[in-house]
Amino acid sequence: MILDFLFKPSFERGVHPPQFKETGRTPIRRMPFASRYTLPLSQSVGRAAKPIVTVGQEVLRGQPIAETAGYVSVPLHSPVTGIVEDIGLHPTLSGEWQESIVIRAFEGASQEVLYGDPVDVDALTPEQIINAVQATGMVGLGGAAFPTHAKLAAPKEWPIEHLLVNGCECEPFLTADHRMMVEWPQHLITGTKFAMKACGAKRALIGVEDNKPDAIAAIEKVLPDDGSITVHAVKTKYPQGAAEMLVKALLGREVPAGARSYQIGVVMQNVGTLAELGRLIPRGQGFIERVVTIAGPGVSKPGNYLVPIGTPLRFVLEQAGAPRDAVEVILGGPMMGAAIASLDVPVTKAISGILVFDRSAMQKERGKTHPCIKCGECVNVCPKGLNPSTLGMLAAKREYDLMAERYHLDGCFECGCCSYVCPSNIPLVQQFRVAKEIVRERQAA
Amino acid sequence: MDRSPYVTESPSVSVIMLKVMLALVPGIVAYVWMFGSGVLISLALASVTALVAEAAMLKVRSRPVMPFLLDGSAMVTAWLLALALPPLAPWWLIVVGTLFAIVVAKQLYGGLGYNPFNPAMVGYAVLLISFPVLMTQWPAPLAIAGAKLSFMDQWNYIFNRVLPGGIGLDAISSATPLDTLKTQLRLQHSMESITSAPLFGQFGGKGGEVVAGAYLLGGLYMWQQRIITWHIPVAFLGALALMSGVAHVVNPEHYAGPLFHLFSGASMLCAFFIATDPISGPTTPRGKLIFAAAIGVLTWLVRVYGGYPDGVAFAVLLLNICVPLIDANTQPRVFGHPK
Lengths: 445, 339
Known about the structure:
EC number (chain A): 7.-.-.-
Order of helices and strands of chain B: HHHHHHEHHEHHHHHHHH
Largest interface: A-B, 57 and 38 residues
Oligomer: heterodimer
CATH superfamily of the largest domain in chain A: NADH-ubiquinone oxidoreductase 51kDa subunit
Distance between the termini of chain B: 39 Å
InterPro entries (chain A): 4Fe4S_Fe-S-bd, 4Fe4S_Fe_S_CS, Ion_transpt_RnfC/RsxC, Nuo51_FMN-bd, Nuo51_FMN-bd_sf, RnfC_N, Soluble_ligand-bd
Helix content of chain B: 55-70%
Number of helices of chain A: 14
Distance between the termini of chain A: 52 Å
Radius of gyration of chain A: 22 Å
Number of domains of chain B: 2
Cofactor (chain A): [4Fe-4S] cluster
CATH topology of the largest domain in chain A: Rossmann fold
Strand order of the largest sheet of chain A: 1-14-13-17-15-16
Helix content of chain A: 25-40%
Number of strands of chain A: 17
Largest sheet of chain B: 2 strands, antiparallel
Shape of chain A: globular
Strand order of the largest sheet of chain B: 1-2
Number of helices of chain B: 16
Enzyme class (chain A): translocase
Protein name (chain A): Ion-translocating oxidoreductase complex subunit C
Number of strands of chain B: 2
Strand content of chain B: under 5%
Strand content of chain A: 15-25%
CATH architecture of the largest domain in chain A: 3-Layer(aba) Sandwich
CATH class of the largest domain in chain A: Alpha Beta
Radius of gyration of chain B: 20 Å
């Protein structure tokens, strides 16, 4: 459409936070190797993997070290050549201690990936692709960490029409997806073709926010001639990268409340996930390192780094030039991310960004809380059409059931737009998170 | 407690209130220019009363005093009430009105965020009903006044009800254009003869239209600063213009035109500063449109058919009552639910 230039497809409402995406202009760099790697056996939704190595065993970079434990479960591969030092409980990002494999890297060992089983990708059937995807250990890299193969295998009664590829990256600061699209467009297309074949989609639409014209141009150069894959500029607006919002922008359809996207014939994958699949499956390798944006006012060497899974967070921050006595560290973007308490935890598969803030700067941001003045700003920005003002007042009165039954609490996906605009600085998202948890517990009881 | 989002764009409530007060400054300047400096005394009186009353009530209610006092909301209420009252009214009238607004309409309902009625309009309505004569003693525009009072003269009049020798009340006061129009029309005077009197200006009352224009400017500033959205001013002024416009076209001899209504009385003050009070208004854009349009219609009805010269205060209060109903019926469609 001609008018696309003027009116980029999008969704209703939402916010426009400042971008802070300077890291999107510099290439992905490799992070140096640390001396020790800790790999929690559970890094995704689903069952934890089962170790297939023993303490004292030498492992090669890329070698499987834990196998799947059921269908919604993914294997683990060693990110380095080294020796298994321990298999036991170690602290993780969630704060819990989890069963993990610790590998001490051999200093001086070539860190080429020595382990791999190249496959003839054109001969693969959809089922074989899904198995191959599971074998890579791939999970959704956008942050959801749902095993990718399970998402590609939608129930048979719902035929898949469209594969939507999410390259919005609408969170401020984060540019990992951006760089992967710019640097690895060929891998992205290869991965997209695998995913289309696996889920049975005839068409794939890649949605990219229009603040990344270089990514769109890079992808356009390598699109297949048959027109089965297309790339679309969508409006730069938060939370454009939320699955439902991108479906709305690209297809003009809403996923009915309570339904899954496959029920309207849609499967969505993150661009990073597919680019990695396009890189790994032909070589028959496992997922052992990922692109992570490290940024924020607290780091002197911000950028996108290729970080081996299991690298200690403290080491990562040192490499990026964060001060030793740092700091406030946020995993993910500033809108939906979570602050972490300890740096003595490893990077896992779902970490797309590590942001370092100055503590004083963050406290200034917050300020004090006023009563709700019913200004309606939150109503004007909620992408789901909820009324956060009313929900917030009900939460304060602990009317959790009313919130769920009459005010569609379950529709909230915690994007944070309401808190972002609230002049009274009310922690709306936190209130809704608590309310949802309580409602869930009550329903389970 | 740690909490996302870690970035925010929102100005705090205090900043919003400060900007509202800043937006009122052009109107106040125009007021002083057109009607004399008495209004500054009312503003000061109302401000001091409001802050003292707010602090005392917070103390009585065992709430932290300073945080709430500094949010600026009491000052905004005080200013709006002061600007709505006749500036040469006796000091106690302003004090009583402000006390009612802050103590009863705001704090007894739970303070900032919990008042169902616009506090300034409650104060105004109470005074209008209780002291109708004092509430209609408006100063004549300086351009046509029989005598001009110095600041000290006005001070003396407000606090002691003493006018300098030789100056009568008639020389410095006049009926408002809205009032004049209503009474003269009832006396079967023609529209043209009424509006050609010196009290009337280009399209509203002399002086009053300049103040209204200044409020409009301040309102546009608030819109530009995103303190208010367009919905309430446009719906209110639109409804008022539509009602008066249709009536004017049907019978120009009996009904003043839209420009007169837009630039007379408290129209502009209401459109940008009073009806836009978020706390006592609806939260959704659609609700705001309905709310403000209804205020516009009611204001016109009171002005033309009612017993009071201006209808803004009663229209706003009546619609405040309807807010829960409006809110309940104007919730946005929830994503993924049928229309």
